[in-house]
Design a protein that fits this description.
Layout lengths: L2 H14 L22 H4 L5 H4 L7 E2 L5 E2 L6 E3 L4 E7 L4 E5 L7 E4 L6 E10 L10 E2 L6 E9 L6 H4 L6 E10 L8 H4 L2 H6 L11 E7 L11 E6 L10 E6 L3 E3 L1 H8 L29 E2 L5 E4 L7 E4 L4 H7 L10
Parallel strand pairs: 1-8, 2-15, 10-13, 10-14
Antiparallel strand pairs: 3-6, 4-5, 4-11, 5-7, 6-7, 7-9, 9-10, 12-13, 12-15, 16-17
Protein backbone atom coordinates (compact mmCIF):
# COMPACT_ATOMS: atom_id res chain seq x y z
CA UNK A 1 0.00 0.00 0.00
CA UNK A 2 1.42 3.44 -0.90
CA UNK A 3 2.07 6.01 1.84
CA UNK A 4 -0.58 8.29 0.34
CA UNK A 5 -3.20 5.56 0.34
CA UNK A 6 -2.25 4.63 3.90
CA UNK A 7 -2.65 8.23 5.05
CA UNK A 8 -6.13 8.58 3.58
CA UNK A 9 -7.15 5.16 4.90
CA UNK A 10 -6.09 6.12 8.43
CA UNK A 11 -7.92 9.41 8.03
CA UNK A 12 -11.06 7.60 6.91
CA UNK A 13 -10.93 5.18 9.84
CA UNK A 14 -10.22 7.96 12.35
CA UNK A 15 -13.10 10.04 11.04
CA UNK A 16 -15.54 7.13 11.04
CA UNK A 17 -14.73 6.08 14.61
CA UNK A 18 -15.91 9.50 15.80
CA UNK A 19 -19.43 8.22 15.26
CA UNK A 20 -20.42 5.44 17.65
CA UNK A 21 -23.50 4.62 15.60
CA UNK A 22 -21.74 4.80 12.24
CA UNK A 23 -23.43 2.73 9.56
CA UNK A 24 -20.62 0.67 8.07
CA UNK A 25 -22.84 -0.29 5.14
CA UNK A 26 -22.36 3.25 3.80
CA UNK A 27 -18.57 3.28 4.06
CA UNK A 28 -17.56 0.85 1.35
CA UNK A 29 -17.45 1.17 -2.44
CA UNK A 30 -16.10 -0.75 -5.44
CA UNK A 31 -13.16 1.57 -6.13
CA UNK A 32 -10.38 3.54 -4.48
CA UNK A 33 -9.39 3.38 -0.81
CA UNK A 34 -12.83 2.11 0.20
CA UNK A 35 -12.86 -0.52 -2.56
CA UNK A 36 -12.46 -4.33 -2.39
CA UNK A 37 -8.72 -4.27 -1.67
CA UNK A 38 -9.41 -2.30 1.53
CA UNK A 39 -12.68 -3.81 2.76
CA UNK A 40 -10.84 -5.91 5.32
CA UNK A 41 -9.00 -2.86 6.64
CA UNK A 42 -11.69 -0.20 7.03
CA UNK A 43 -13.74 -2.30 9.48
CA UNK A 44 -12.22 -4.78 11.95
CA UNK A 45 -15.28 -7.00 11.54
CA UNK A 46 -14.51 -7.46 7.85
CA UNK A 47 -11.05 -9.00 8.14
CA UNK A 48 -12.17 -12.09 6.19
CA UNK A 49 -12.28 -9.90 3.06
CA UNK A 50 -8.48 -9.82 3.13
CA UNK A 51 -7.56 -12.93 5.12
CA UNK A 52 -10.22 -15.46 4.15
CA UNK A 53 -9.38 -18.65 2.25
CA UNK A 54 -12.88 -19.47 0.95
CA UNK A 55 -13.82 -16.23 -0.70
CA UNK A 56 -16.21 -15.43 -3.54
CA UNK A 57 -16.66 -14.87 -6.43
CA UNK A 58 -14.53 -17.39 -8.31
CA UNK A 59 -13.79 -18.47 -11.84
CA UNK A 60 -15.45 -21.80 -12.65
CA UNK A 61 -13.28 -24.11 -14.73
CA UNK A 62 -15.60 -26.56 -16.57
CA UNK A 63 -12.79 -29.11 -16.86
CA UNK A 64 -12.30 -29.26 -13.08
CA UNK A 65 -15.89 -29.84 -11.99
CA UNK A 66 -16.71 -32.87 -9.84
CA UNK A 67 -19.94 -34.64 -10.72
CA UNK A 68 -22.03 -35.45 -7.66
CA UNK A 69 -25.01 -37.73 -8.32
CA UNK A 70 -26.49 -36.85 -4.92
CA UNK A 71 -27.20 -33.28 -5.97
CA UNK A 72 -30.90 -32.91 -6.67
CA UNK A 73 -32.80 -29.99 -8.16
CA UNK A 74 -32.87 -26.60 -6.45
CA UNK A 75 -36.35 -25.27 -5.68
CA UNK A 76 -37.67 -21.73 -5.08
CA UNK A 77 -41.25 -21.04 -3.99
CA UNK A 78 -43.39 -19.66 -6.82
CA UNK A 79 -45.95 -17.53 -4.98
CA UNK A 80 -46.22 -13.79 -5.57
CA UNK A 81 -44.80 -11.27 -3.11
CA UNK A 82 -44.28 -7.54 -2.79
CA UNK A 83 -40.78 -6.13 -2.56
CA UNK A 84 -38.84 -2.89 -2.69
CA UNK A 85 -35.77 -2.18 -4.78
CA UNK A 86 -33.21 0.42 -3.73
CA UNK A 87 -30.40 2.21 -5.52
CA UNK A 88 -27.94 2.10 -2.62
CA UNK A 89 -25.28 4.14 -4.40
CA UNK A 90 -23.23 0.94 -4.54
CA UNK A 91 -25.60 -1.36 -6.44
CA UNK A 92 -29.27 -2.34 -6.69
CA UNK A 93 -30.74 -4.32 -3.80
CA UNK A 94 -34.19 -5.88 -3.82
CA UNK A 95 -35.66 -6.88 -0.45
CA UNK A 96 -38.88 -8.69 0.31
CA UNK A 97 -41.60 -6.56 1.87
CA UNK A 98 -42.56 -6.77 5.54
CA UNK A 99 -45.22 -9.31 6.40
CA UNK A 100 -44.88 -11.27 3.17
CA UNK A 101 -45.20 -15.04 3.07
CA UNK A 102 -41.60 -16.36 3.13
CA UNK A 103 -40.06 -17.46 -0.16
CA UNK A 104 -38.11 -20.63 0.59
CA UNK A 105 -35.08 -22.00 -1.25
CA UNK A 106 -34.60 -25.74 -0.77
CA UNK A 107 -33.02 -28.82 -2.31
CA UNK A 108 -29.80 -29.12 -4.26
CA UNK A 109 -26.80 -29.03 -1.91
CA UNK A 110 -28.88 -27.54 0.93
CA UNK A 111 -29.56 -29.61 4.04
CA UNK A 112 -31.83 -26.93 5.54
CA UNK A 113 -34.59 -24.58 4.44
CA UNK A 114 -33.38 -21.13 3.41
CA UNK A 115 -35.58 -18.04 3.32
CA UNK A 116 -34.97 -15.45 0.62
CA UNK A 117 -34.07 -12.02 2.01
CA UNK A 118 -32.40 -9.95 -0.69
CA UNK A 119 -31.36 -9.86 -4.34
CA UNK A 120 -28.26 -7.98 -5.52
CA UNK A 121 -27.42 -6.95 -9.10
CA UNK A 122 -23.93 -6.67 -10.61
CA UNK A 123 -23.01 -5.23 -14.00
CA UNK A 124 -20.06 -3.57 -15.70
CA UNK A 125 -19.49 -0.26 -17.41
CA UNK A 126 -21.04 0.10 -20.83
CA UNK A 127 -19.26 -2.14 -23.31
CA UNK A 128 -17.55 -4.23 -20.62
CA UNK A 129 -18.54 -7.47 -18.88
CA UNK A 130 -20.11 -7.33 -15.47
CA UNK A 131 -20.66 -10.71 -13.83
CA UNK A 132 -18.78 -11.46 -10.62
CA UNK A 133 -18.54 -15.20 -11.25
CA UNK A 134 -16.90 -16.24 -14.50
CA UNK A 135 -16.87 -19.53 -16.38
CA UNK A 136 -13.63 -20.52 -18.06
CA UNK A 137 -12.58 -16.85 -17.65
CA UNK A 138 -15.70 -15.77 -19.53
CA UNK A 139 -17.61 -12.88 -17.93
CA UNK A 140 -21.28 -12.26 -18.67
CA UNK A 141 -22.75 -8.75 -19.07
CA UNK A 142 -24.44 -8.94 -15.64
CA UNK A 143 -25.25 -11.23 -12.72
CA UNK A 144 -28.16 -11.55 -10.31
CA UNK A 145 -27.52 -12.93 -6.83
CA UNK A 146 -30.31 -14.18 -4.56
CA UNK A 147 -29.33 -14.42 -0.89
CA UNK A 148 -31.27 -16.49 1.63
CA UNK A 149 -30.67 -17.40 5.27
CA UNK A 150 -31.00 -20.71 7.08
CA UNK A 151 -34.47 -20.21 8.57
CA UNK A 152 -34.39 -23.56 10.37
CA UNK A 153 -31.68 -22.22 12.67
CA UNK A 154 -31.63 -18.42 12.42
CA UNK A 155 -34.02 -15.46 12.29
CA UNK A 156 -32.45 -13.31 9.57
CA UNK A 157 -29.50 -12.90 7.22
CA UNK A 158 -27.50 -10.73 9.64
CA UNK A 159 -27.55 -13.51 12.23
CA UNK A 160 -27.12 -16.42 9.82
CA UNK A 161 -24.10 -15.02 8.00
CA UNK A 162 -22.05 -15.34 11.19
CA UNK A 163 -22.46 -19.14 11.27
CA UNK A 164 -21.38 -22.04 9.00
CA UNK A 165 -24.13 -23.08 6.61
CA UNK A 166 -26.05 -19.94 7.41
CA UNK A 167 -26.40 -18.50 3.91
CA UNK A 168 -27.23 -19.59 0.37
CA UNK A 169 -26.35 -17.53 -2.68
CA UNK A 170 -28.00 -18.34 -6.02
CA UNK A 171 -26.14 -16.79 -8.95
CA UNK A 172 -27.95 -16.21 -12.26
CA UNK A 173 -26.05 -14.88 -15.26
CA UNK A 174 -27.63 -12.28 -17.55
CA UNK A 175 -26.95 -12.49 -21.28
CA UNK A 176 -27.80 -10.05 -24.07
CA UNK A 177 -29.98 -11.23 -26.93
CA UNK A 178 -31.41 -8.78 -29.45
CA UNK A 179 -31.34 -5.00 -29.64
CA UNK A 180 -34.69 -3.67 -28.41
CA UNK A 181 -36.86 -4.52 -25.45
CA UNK A 182 -38.94 -7.60 -26.08
CA UNK A 183 -42.70 -7.51 -25.81
CA UNK A 184 -43.34 -11.20 -25.42
CA UNK A 185 -45.85 -11.95 -22.69
CA UNK A 186 -43.58 -14.30 -20.77
CA UNK A 187 -40.74 -11.79 -20.52
CA UNK A 188 -42.68 -8.65 -19.68
CA UNK A 189 -44.60 -10.48 -16.96
CA UNK A 190 -41.56 -12.23 -15.52
CA UNK A 191 -39.89 -11.09 -12.34
CA UNK A 192 -36.86 -9.76 -14.24
CA UNK A 193 -38.99 -7.86 -16.77
CA UNK A 194 -40.94 -6.32 -13.89
CA UNK A 195 -37.74 -5.16 -12.19
CA UNK A 196 -36.24 -3.66 -15.35
CA UNK A 197 -39.44 -1.70 -16.00
CA UNK A 198 -38.87 0.11 -12.68
CA UNK A 199 -35.23 1.15 -13.21
CA UNK A 200 -36.06 4.64 -14.48
CA UNK A 201 -37.67 5.44 -11.12
CA UNK A 202 -34.52 4.62 -9.12
CA UNK A 203 -31.94 6.49 -11.18
CA UNK A 204 -30.20 8.15 -8.22
CA UNK A 205 -28.54 6.92 -5.04
CA UNK A 206 -31.09 6.54 -2.26
CA UNK A 207 -34.07 6.16 -4.60
CA UNK A 208 -36.52 3.42 -3.69
CA UNK A 209 -39.43 1.91 -5.61
CA UNK A 210 -41.91 -0.81 -4.75
CA UNK A 211 -42.74 -3.90 -6.75
CA UNK A 212 -46.06 -5.66 -6.42
CA UNK A 213 -46.90 -9.21 -7.30
CA UNK A 214 -43.46 -10.47 -8.25
CA UNK A 215 -42.47 -14.14 -8.34
CA UNK A 216 -38.79 -14.86 -7.75
CA UNK A 217 -39.17 -18.26 -9.40
CA UNK A 218 -39.85 -16.53 -12.75
CA UNK A 219 -36.38 -14.99 -12.63
CA UNK A 220 -34.73 -18.40 -12.63
CA UNK A 221 -33.42 -19.78 -15.94
CA UNK A 222 -35.12 -22.80 -17.49
CA UNK A 223 -32.65 -25.42 -16.30
CA UNK A 224 -32.17 -27.78 -13.36
CA UNK A 225 -28.39 -27.85 -13.85
CA UNK A 226 -26.03 -25.93 -11.61
CA UNK A 227 -22.56 -25.72 -10.11
CA UNK A 228 -22.07 -25.43 -6.34
CA UNK A 229 -19.21 -24.61 -3.98
CA UNK A 230 -18.60 -23.24 -0.48
CA UNK A 231 -17.66 -19.57 -0.41
CA UNK A 232 -18.50 -16.16 1.00
CA UNK A 233 -20.74 -13.19 0.47
CA UNK A 234 -19.27 -10.96 -2.23
CA UNK A 235 -19.93 -7.81 -0.19
CA UNK A 236 -18.38 -6.78 3.15
CA UNK A 237 -17.67 -8.50 5.50
CA UNK A 238 -17.14 -11.44 3.12
CA UNK A 239 -18.51 -14.02 5.58
CA UNK A 240 -17.37 -17.53 4.63
CA UNK A 241 -20.72 -19.10 5.44
CA UNK A 242 -22.30 -19.15 1.97
CA UNK A 243 -23.21 -22.17 -0.12
CA UNK A 244 -23.20 -20.95 -3.72
CA UNK A 245 -25.47 -22.35 -6.42
CA UNK A 246 -24.46 -21.03 -9.86
CA UNK A 247 -27.16 -21.80 -12.40
CA UNK A 248 -25.88 -23.43 -15.58
CA UNK A 249 -27.85 -21.30 -18.05
CA UNK A 250 -28.23 -17.54 -18.37
CA UNK A 251 -31.41 -15.51 -18.57
CA UNK A 252 -31.76 -13.12 -21.50
CA UNK A 253 -32.47 -9.42 -21.82
CA UNK A 254 -32.11 -7.06 -24.79
CA UNK A 255 -29.30 -4.58 -25.28
CA UNK A 256 -31.83 -1.78 -24.75
CA UNK A 257 -32.78 -3.27 -21.38
CA UNK A 258 -29.14 -3.58 -20.36
CA UNK A 259 -28.64 0.07 -21.29
CA UNK A 260 -31.21 0.97 -18.63
CA UNK A 261 -28.77 -0.26 -15.99
CA UNK A 262 -26.10 2.01 -17.44
CA UNK A 263 -28.32 5.06 -16.87
CA UNK A 264 -28.25 4.62 -13.09
CA UNK A 265 -26.07 6.90 -10.97
CA UNK A 266 -24.30 6.63 -7.62
CA UNK A 267 -25.20 10.11 -6.42
CA UNK A 268 -28.35 12.22 -6.19
CA UNK A 269 -29.82 14.73 -8.65
CA UNK A 270 -27.58 17.53 -7.37
CA UNK A 271 -24.36 15.50 -7.57
CA UNK A 272 -24.82 12.48 -9.82
CA UNK A 273 -21.25 11.27 -9.32
CA UNK A 274 -20.22 8.28 -11.43
CA UNK A 275 -22.43 5.66 -13.12
CA UNK A 276 -23.59 2.94 -10.75
CA UNK A 277 -22.06 0.12 -12.81
CA UNK A 278 -18.77 -1.74 -12.48
CA UNK A 279 -19.96 -2.89 -9.05
CA UNK A 280 -17.86 -6.04 -9.05
CA UNK A 281 -15.63 -7.71 -6.53
CA UNK A 282 -12.56 -9.25 -8.23
CA UNK A 283 -12.48 -13.03 -8.50
CA UNK A 284 -10.89 -14.80 -5.56
CA UNK A 285 -8.47 -17.78 -5.42
CA UNK A 286 -10.13 -21.17 -5.31
CA UNK A 287 -7.57 -22.52 -2.82
CA UNK A 288 -8.28 -26.19 -3.60
CA UNK A 289 -11.99 -25.99 -2.86
CA UNK A 290 -14.23 -28.60 -4.48
CA UNK A 291 -16.58 -27.28 -7.16
CA UNK A 292 -19.38 -29.80 -7.69
CA UNK A 293 -22.10 -30.12 -10.29
CA UNK A 294 -25.23 -32.16 -10.95
CA UNK A 295 -24.47 -32.10 -14.69
CA UNK A 296 -23.54 -35.51 -16.04
CA UNK A 297 -20.80 -34.19 -18.29
CA UNK A 298 -20.41 -36.15 -21.49
CA UNK A 299 -16.87 -35.95 -22.78
CA UNK A 300 -15.99 -36.09 -26.44
CA UNK A 301 -12.38 -36.77 -27.33
CA UNK A 302 -11.10 -34.74 -30.24
CA UNK A 303 -7.97 -35.94 -31.94
CA UNK A 304 -5.74 -33.03 -32.88
CA UNK A 305 -2.88 -33.64 -35.28
CA UNK A 306 0.41 -33.73 -33.43
CA UNK A 307 -1.17 -33.29 -29.99
CA UNK A 308 -2.70 -35.41 -27.28
CA UNK A 309 -6.48 -35.93 -27.30
CA UNK A 310 -8.41 -32.98 -25.85
CA UNK A 311 -11.50 -33.41 -23.68
CA UNK A 312 -14.33 -31.07 -24.67
CA UNK A 313 -17.59 -31.03 -22.75
CA UNK A 314 -20.62 -31.09 -25.03
CA UNK A 315 -23.51 -30.87 -22.55
CA UNK A 316 -22.56 -27.65 -20.83
CA UNK A 317 -25.21 -25.00 -21.50
CA UNK A 318 -22.72 -22.19 -20.89
CA UNK A 319 -21.73 -22.75 -24.53
CA UNK A 320 -25.11 -21.42 -25.57
CA UNK A 321 -24.62 -18.30 -23.49
CA UNK A 322 -21.14 -17.65 -24.82
CA UNK A 323 -22.16 -18.01 -28.45
CA UNK A 324 -25.02 -15.55 -27.98
CA UNK A 325 -22.81 -12.91 -26.41
CA UNK A 326 -22.06 -9.65 -28.25
CA UNK A 327 -18.40 -9.55 -29.19
CA UNK A 328 -17.50 -6.84 -26.67
CA UNK A 329 -18.44 -9.15 -23.78
CA UNK A 330 -16.27 -12.05 -24.91
CA UNK A 331 -13.25 -12.59 -22.70
CA UNK A 332 -11.80 -15.99 -23.50
CA UNK A 333 -14.35 -18.61 -24.49
CA UNK A 334 -15.53 -22.13 -24.05
Amino acid sequence: MSSKATFFLVLLISYSTCFVAANWDDWWTYEGISGPAYWGLINPSWTMCNKGRRQSPINIDPTSLSYDSRLGAISIDKHLISAKITNTGQTLVLKVGDGEVPVNITGGPLAYKYQFQEMIFHWGEKGFPGSEHTVNEYSFPAEIQLYGFNSDLYQNLSMAREHPGGVVGVAIMIQVKGESARLEHDHMHSGLGHIISKLSSIKYGGDVTRLKQISLATIMPNTADYITYEGSTTFPGCWETTTWVVMNKPVYISRQELDMFYQLRQGDKVMEKAPLGNNLRPRQPLNNRAVRTNIALQAQKIECEGTLPEVKFTTNEWVEGAQAAPSEYRRGGF
